[in-house]
């Protein structure tokens, strides 16, 4: 019974982030931006960041995606805002491990995104959950980008 209540809590948090995403919208100005899409399912994310003094000062996302994609982007933005770039990049790796069914070293750092661990049971949904995280990785490592057509069937590492 307790496990069922926990599952319900996780589902509710994911639905809340999907229905009322945090940091959704467009920044007036950004230092890093990228558009990434998953052509297999049609999810598209535009991610904009303001990075100053090696820290993510602000972040917003827009685009179209399923509930898992939108919730993951919302959770990701909450988790990385105010973080150093190196810490955010480490979180990208930790999240990737999580949704592949592995145990990340710093689960608590992921915040609400840790609730997406159940995605590992649904391989087709992993790409949905990781789209925003891959966009963050590319926006931070490749600098200012405007458009990148993503083919998410290959490893980007």
List keywords for this structure.
single chain; 157 residues; alpha+beta; Sufe protein. Chain: A; three-stranded antiparallel sheet; 3 strands; 42% helix; globular; disordered C terminus
Q: Based on CA inertia axes, which overall geometry fits? A: globular
The stretches of 5 or more residues where confidence is low (pLDDT under 50) are: 145-157
Average pLDDT works out at 85
Round the Cα radius of gyration to an integer and report it: 15 Å
Cα separation of the termini: 40 Å
Q: Which sequence of SSEs, written as H and E, runs from N to C?
A: HEEEHHH
Strand order of the largest sheet: 1-2-3
Main pleated-sheet profile: 3 strands, antiparallel
Q: Count of DSSP E strands?
A: 3
Number of domains: 1
- At the fold tier of CATH, the topology name is Sufe protein. Chain: A
List the helices and strands and how they pair.
Layout: H1 2-19, E1 32-38, E2 43-52, E3 55-64, H2 67-80, H3 85-99, H4 123-141
Antiparallel strand pairs: 1-2, 2-3
Helix pairs in contact: 1-2, 2-4, 3-4
In short:
This protein is of the alpha+beta class.
Overview of this protein structure:
This is Nitrogen fixation protein NifU. InterPro entries: NIF_FeS_clus_asmbl_NifU_N. The chain is an alpha+beta fold. The protein is built from four helices and three strands, in the order H-E-E-E-H-H-H. Helix 1 crosses helix 2, helix 2 packs parallel to helix 4 and helix 3 runs antiparallel to helix 4. The relative contact order is 0.19. The C terminus is likely disordered.
């Amino acid at each position: 019974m307790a496990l069922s209540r926990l599952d319900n809590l996780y589902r509710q948090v994911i639905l809340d982030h999907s229905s009322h995403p945090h940091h959704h919208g467009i920044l007036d100005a950004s230092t890093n931006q990228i558009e990434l899409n998953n052509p297999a399912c049609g999810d598209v994310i535009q991610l904009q960041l303001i990075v100053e003094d090696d820290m993510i000062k602000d972040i917003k996302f827009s685009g179209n995606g399923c509930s898992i994609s939108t919730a993951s982007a919302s959770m990701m933005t909450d988790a990385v805002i105010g973080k150093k770039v190196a810490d955010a990049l480490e979180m990208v790796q930790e999240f990737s491990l999580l949704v592949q069914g592995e145990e990340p070293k710093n689960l608590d750092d992921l915040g609400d995104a840790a609730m997406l661990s159940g995605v590992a049971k649904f391989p087709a949904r992993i790409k949905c959950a990781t789209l925003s995280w891959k966009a963050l990785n590319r926006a931070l490592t490749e600098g200012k980008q405007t458009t990148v057509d993503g083919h998410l069937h290959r490893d980007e590492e």
